[in-house]
Design a protein that fits this description.
Two copies of one chain form a homodimer. Chain A is an alpha/beta fold. Helices cover 42% and strands 13% of the residues of chain A. Chain A has 17 helices and 15 strands.
Chain lengths: 483, 483
């Protein structure tokens, strides 16, 4: 008979039955309780754990429902499967086969790790591309929320392109950065990522090729590969993507699209110069190569506004423009937008209706109110102040801690510093070692498989004390690894 | 030179420059102004339209950006393309080719029509599967929104499975209908439709087959066909899907999944009996055929609660359970959930993170508060009262207007009445004729290609006066067509 030498901790926030469930699960999943193992009777378990029998019953019921335990009348409870991921034979349905089956690829393992670790409370996130909870405009958001009931008569499905009042506000907003787009050529998406997903399934053929900066945020997503689309990286210099290579690779691969982040590029922080923007647009017009302009960091300039968007100079409908509230205000609203030729917008909106019937109307009303009330501009000014302090703090820390062992440039906006480490450092080892110390990193090879000595640092997320602690510890680890 | 004998109407809500833009667009798109046509100078246009020159400039700029006009210095403005959908040659990039290209199929034409007509203000929607704005709980929602600022510290990205406090509430909620699911085996989606989309790309192989009721809501979506998945309909009787055919078709097609709406089936309104539920679960367990249980209408019982969900009787992890707030509270929140074996939930959550980084946190907080505050139950009681009145009104109208020419049964919950019309009625003609009279219908063949004499009526959406007007007019049209 199995041994149990553990009791749930009633002082914890986690309900006792969940603690019991997790305990049993771990025993099973780690192979400590193998398939066929008999579990003590529920009455005995209750005594062993020092809890009511009903608590044990609840835990066991869930484990039975999850297929880990089975209860046969007269025979007590037994371990039925050791774990879903090892599940190999016969009934219940072998979900594991299904999990491996779908066309869509899983996230990259490092991204899965990052997604798994990010929610943990004490982790220091030095690479997270998200505004810190500390700069969340709690006061202003409360004001917005209090105004919403007067606006919202009902919360039904919206038309495919999204809430009309929000598209009207966005039309004005885009006009303020030089882009002429009427509400009918704008669609709302649940963040720019969703726009990319819709483009990947709605506008591109399998085996087609898109060009993108090297490195690029897009490389860290499995979205395009999952739709059978190839990504070809184009070298950058300090002024952005290099035009001769765009032309060359466009011809070589018969590329279908170019994806670019011209302002405060993710992960390098580069701002494409005005001259380069003009050259790129001209090259793409000549080559009939449509552009996806991902401009989600535009508002987050810290020294001076970036040059106008490509879309503002686009007189031929070459550019599909992506914007978002996620970086500048709050990712949790899940609101972004696409502006471009109306038939393209219509097509993408039709697909969106098939995938999620539109974005949250509540979020759409909230963003419309942010824009209409002028509070968005108030917030942006505060946000830039907060972000500037963070950037300058991280730059000062880097100067103190990494002088001589790493290289970087000062970004003039956005979130990121692209840190080049000594070639001797193994990113995987660094990632693991940092995690041991409670620091979560975004390794450079997520964004370019050859960037094996880079880290994407972000000054947007960690608190200032955490940032200091994190950068100092990171420098220690790197120095140790270089030795 | 072209003639202009039209002026914008300044009393309208639509901005004047948009009216001008739409006017020019229509001229071009209808072929009245062909490619190469010279547009009068902006000064002259301003005079013709009786507006400021800046208004004309704005309209023309947008049309240039959309690729319809082109302005060459010294040569004035010309029509550049007649319309994107006829666009055939050379630069600008031929977006039209892209639109046809993507792997994802467009919505069915009738669904596109429906999506297009639904937002129009004066249309009477007799088939819309959405709660009427009239039964939207405006008062209670205002209370919820006023409570949110105290809960929301920040609105960042959530973990892949969704906001933890909401999953805790849902865990309790599911327990109340007999389903044991811990927060870690629940994930939040942007409505049940998104869950289906994630399943189609995450768990199913191309060329696999899923079984579903015949007719079925799922048939009206192009989601599964877009992923290369076949759908095979199984006949129903008054107790639900028929088991012998499930077994037969599972074998014949080596089917991968069964999709069912056991409670208040869409579109027939059928409630699967307890006996049938047990048989179905047993058959699927024996055949190792996983079930997707779409239970989004469960709360909307009008006479008595339906039998327990399949998931509540599932001791082997055979069932993946879908729920949603869209039908019972407000679709615009875009919040649904999936409960099932944890590895499956993990896989789906990983894909969700790749497609939209999670659902609106604002919506998630709102739904958590609805559940935690108990206001959801208050609302459901009101909702049932409102819906019962609507159902009884529609049944009375049908008895008055359709006796002798159509057949239907009384639904005991949900939104739908499955109306069987005389065989002589052409659904396409009926759809068009009704639209002429301002009535929007959901033809039966959307849900089963052989249901060429059925309509899916919904008593959930139209106001009572509209419902009366609509049903009377519909009966007139049908009687006329039968003659």
């Amino acid at each position: 008979m199995i041994q149990i030498d553990w009791k749930p901790d009633k002082s914890l926030a986690t309900p006792v039955y969940i603690q019991i469930k997790d305990f049993i699960k771990e025993k099973i999943e780690t192979g400590q309780w193998t398939v066929g193992t008999r579990i003590p009777a529920q009455r005995a378990l209750a005594q062993l754990f020092g809890v009511n029998r009903s608590t044990v019953v609840l835990a066991c019921e869930e484990l039975i429902a999850e297929g880990l335990l089975e209860g046969k009348s007269g025979q007590g409870t037994r371990v039925k499967n050791n774990t879903w991921s090892l599940l190999s034979s016969a009934p219940p349905p072998d979900w594991n086969q299904y999990i491996k089956r779908g066309a869509h690829q899983p996230n990259l393992p490092t991204i899965q790790d990052i997604n798994r670790w990010e929610p943990l409370p004490h982790i220091i996130r030095l690479g997270t591309g998200e505004p810190s909870p500390e700069i969340f405009p709690q006061e202003l958001m409360a004001q917005i929320l209090h105004r919403l009931p007067a606006k919202i008569q009902s919360l039904g499905y919206e038309e495919g392109k999204g809430l009309y009042p929000l598209r009207e506000e966005l039309s004005k907003h885009l006009q303020s950065i030089g882009i002429a787009a009427s509400p009918s050529s704008i669609m709302i998406v649940s963040g720019a990522l969703q726009a990319l997903q819709l483009i990947s399934i709605g506008l591109l053929r399998r085996n087609s090729t898109i060009l993108l900066e090297k490195p690029s945020y897009l490389k860290s997503l499995n979205l395009f590969p999952s739709s059978g689309i190839n990504m070809v990286g184009i070298p950058m210099d300090e002024y952005g993507i290099q035009i001769p290579f765009v032309k060359q690779q466009k011809k070589k691969h018969n590329a279908s699209l170019l994806y670019t982040i011209p302002s405060f590029h993710n992960p390098t922080g580069t701002v494409m110069s005005l001259e380069r923007r003009k050259q790129l647009l001209q090259a793409c017009e000549e080559g009939q190569l449509p552009i996806i302009e991902d401009d989600v960091y535009r508002e987050l300039w810290l020294d001076e506004p970036p040059p106008p968007p490509l879309k503002a100079m686009d007189k031929h409908g070459t550019v599909l423009y992506l914007g978002s509230i996620s970086k500048a205000l709050a990712p949790g609203l899940r609101i972004g937008w696409v502006a471009g030729p109306e038939p393209v917008i219509d097509r993408l909106a039709d697909i969106k209706m098939q995938t999620d019937y539109g974005s949250s109307s509540l979020s759409q009303w909230a963003v419309a109110e942010w824009l209409a009330s002028g509070m968005y501009d108030v917030h942006l000014a505060n946000m830039r102040d907060g972000l500037r302090l963070r950037r300058d703090t991280m730059l000062a820390l880097l100067a103190d801690e990494f002088a001589g062992i790493a290289e970087w440039t000062k970004p003039s906006g956005g979130f990121y510093i692209w840190l080049q480490l000594p070639a001797a450092v193994s990113l995987r080892e660094l990632f693991e070692a940092a995690l041991q110390e409670g620091i979560l990193l975004n390794p450079g090879n997520l964004y370019d498989s050859l960037a094996v000595s880079h880290l994407r640092l972000s000054y947007s997320y960690a608190s200032l004390p955490d940032m200091e602690k994190g950068i100092k510890k990171l420098a220690e680890i790197v120095r140790h690894m270089v030795k």
